[in-house]
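Please, does this match?
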Amino acid sequence: MPTIRVELPQHLRTLAHVGHEVELEVEGPVTQRTVLDALELRYPMLQGAIRDHVTKQRRAFLRFFACQEDLTHESPDAPLPEAVASGKEPFLVIGAIAGG
């Protein structure tokens, strides 16, 4: 079972009482969905903070990155890059900023 590194924005770190990066064991293929499922399983206080409780859709002001690529609008079941799946690179959950 691969160990995946996930970096969280400050507000989610505070909510989960964790540091800058967490490590997770992910069963099955390494996708956005399996990583976020494992994250919410290990840190239940994050349920509903990253994705909607019912629809599992990403919250509006969060984005997902890996290997310098914006994966926010990719299918949640698409495989993440090999560097993330192998633990070499982290999966990034980034707080987006809006303004005008």
In short: The longest strand covers residues 3-7.
